[in-house]
Specification:
Number of helices of chain A: 19
Order of helices and strands of chain A: HHHHHHHHHHHHHHHHHHH
Strand content of chain A: under 5%
Number of strands of chain A: 0
Structural class of chain A: mainly alpha
Largest sheet of chain B: 2 strands, antiparallel
Shape of chain B: globular
Structural class of chain B: mainly alpha
Largest sheet of chain A: none
Helix content of chain B: over 70%
Oligomer: heterodimer
Number of domains of chain B: 1
Chain lengths: ~450, ~475
Amino acid sequence: MIGIALVFLGGVITLFWGLNKSESKSLWILRFFMLLSALLSGAEGQGWVDFSELFKWVPAHMLNFNAFKLSMVSILSFFGFYILSLLPSTYKKGADVLGLFAFALTGAMMMVGSQHLVMLFLGLEVLSIPLFVLAGSEKENIYGNEAAMKYFLMGAFSTAIFLLGAAFTYGGSGTLILSEIQMKLSFAAHFGEFPVLLKAGVILMSVGLLFKVSAVPFHFWSPDVYEGSPNRVATFMAVIVKVAGFVAFAQLINTFSPMQIWINQWIVPVSILTILVGNIAALVQQTVKRTLAYSSISHAGYLLLFLILPMEENLPILGTYLLSYGLGTIILFYLMDKYSADGEKSFEMFKNIKNNKIDMAALVIGTLSIAGVPSTIGFVAKYQLFSAAFSQNHYSVYLALLGSAISIAYYFKPFRYALAETNEVDAEQNSINGLFSQICLITGMLLIITLGLLPMITERIF
Amino acid sequence: MELILIPILASLIWAFLPIKSRWIASGLSLIGLVVLLTKYNQGSFPDGLVVFDQPWLGESVRFTMVIDQITWFMLLLTQLLLPIIVLSVKDQNQKLIAWAFLMQAGLNGVFMAQDGLIFYLFWELAMIPIYFITLQFSEKDNFVTTIRFFIYTFVGSLAMLASLIYLALLSGGSFAYADLLNTQLSHAQSLIIGGGLLLAFAVKIPIFPFHLWQADTYTNAPAQGSMLLSGIMLKMGLYGLIRWYMPLAAESIDFYQPIVMTLAVIGIIYGGIIAIRQDDMKRITAYSSLSHVGLIAAGFFTLNASGFNGGLLQMLVHGLNVVGMFLIIDIIQKNANTRNLSELGGIASKFKFFTVLFFIIVIGTAAAPLTSGFPGEFMLLNSVFKYNSIHGLLSGLTIILCAVYMLRIFQKAALGSNEIAISEISFVDYLPLIIVAFTVLFIGLFPQVILEIFPLSVEKLMLEISNAKGVLS
């Protein structure tokens, strides 16, 4: 709760304070609030502090945060902070863009904490609507306009489908509170037959969420939208939307856990399809940004495998995976943003990275982590997920492993230009980081390596 | 544990501090050897000495490091070869040394790990540096070759990971070696699990149809990359075969034995024949290496003592010899700017001492009696012959084929009237060669010194394998 309050407050203050100032001046305020939210929510998640007295007035059947969700809120705020710290602004005047980032993050946190379908829907909308605007925030860029339009149409459709699903669920169970739906379902499970309305409801709601996390076959919008949006917004979509989307998705599926066997029948094919299509399509992409978009699609596929597990005891796996995915993705998007500044969009942009040791290390560590190579957190996350999923379904894990083998072929493409001695370097390209983003980058790398070598820390976090 | 931390530390020092002296680098890499000889050689550990044991992830994975006689021997191989390799690094490639140290840490971990997931962790950790070495320091754009190499090995590794996860699931969630060993598998399970493990090791060794990454990678890699790959890296696969595949999936050995034996024998002859027709010295060495490790793999799969002992001995010998060959190729290439046999010749008339060393290493690789190649190869052929006389006869051809291509290298490069311009060979270049040539003669004359290192652990290992096999049959 404290996270939502702080980030919202930060957004409002930034809006007023930054009305006539340049973005960089008001950015510090928002970053501060996001970091504070990350720290306080994290501390509350660990049980070191307790703010529940402050927010007694919030009905617990609407919004409620347990320890895991507080950790996720903390991670979301941290990612928000990290994105705003690493990726520079493309928007020169006013702080309205920053306010939209803050409000979208608030929506993501509401999705994480929702206990009620209306709240979940509200979170989804509060997250999406600022993003529709943000996608088109470069007004002169026609690709940005296309992206905004596409994202808006797709988002509106998927929300409508989600809403229809929620209505069906209400028709089938007579309630919108998640825990009560679960109770009704357990009763129905005794009779061995689930109401058709509930089945339709969960399918339609899942489709709505699958749109949001860009799972195959609902993924077509995402590479186009990522490519058109400013890099910072694309990163925000790839990370924040997916993290919040999957926590909410896991909770939704957990609500319908009495019909888990039936749900697995369609989750597993969707997951495998997402992994394979994402990875194979990424192989043939020409630009780095589209490759990253397909990479994030394939990660959505791995994460869908999580939904077939019994939820409660496996939540740490979800947390670790989302953490590793977010860290790796933000670092790679940062590098892509930095080295595509001169207009080069293909992998050749990385040939200038040789001038900068820290960026080079970040490229190596970020790539290894997101590809799931051991000694990084990416491996720990993938290992935990796969070994848990293996006890449920052997074949999906074999195919997921095949998918990660394919992914090596495109994740390692930058090294061709970044490392090989034979490529000449553009000496004029000066690439000096600001001190602050340098510190952020090193922090991220250290997190990836430390959590990869000492995974017992993540067990303690979640 | 020092054997892992010291190399990592050395690697960090080398990567971030501006020191540029290969003597210091070799000194740093010698620390490992010193630690190994002083700290862990006070007695032999046939049952294994637990060096380190801490929980790593939940209750299922423990960070366990154990040294027994076979492990000690593999560690010896690594620590012995690394200073030689580091000493030969060219001055402009100093950053390569940092990767080499990281690789040393990975290799030491692979050999000591006694937990499935930790083994996998170090297995991959050893692979990352070699990927970057081959990519970064090669002479031309090497991306396609290296990515092929990495994907080949990564697919194998993932198959191994799947097998280990499956095995751990059956053992009740624990990855500890002892638990995995005591898990009983049905026939179908053992085929799946054994197949995954075998794929990983067969790609790494490489056994015949999985060798396609090898020749190009060796040829395009910098000399030190080829040395690390063929000298030490391949031994990971062979070690995995006897330490991880055979005891853990023993139920599947009966099924895979004839397949692997046949493939290995095909590889022996195939590698030898192709080597004869090559012009590039590095390619010849690559294919000769395919042929030699094929024989070692075949020897292990015969499951008799002579095969195991001979195979282990041959691992060390092949490591030293192949590193020696790559050293020679590197020196020749540095001076003559080519390594094609058709353009070389006449080294003998100018550099007598170099030619003597060259010849010693050549006959050592060709396994002439009284050189290091002979005892191991003899034991291996003996064991393969015991398994099946046709396999034995065919793999015996390796001695003839090897003599043909090795003497061809010597004849075309060292003899002949072709005058090539070799300016000078410095002492730094000579030193590693002298060490290798010395071991060729020493092991050739006293193979018993090496063979006495590991007999008890080999016996124990073979007992474990036959026990595990006996459960089912």
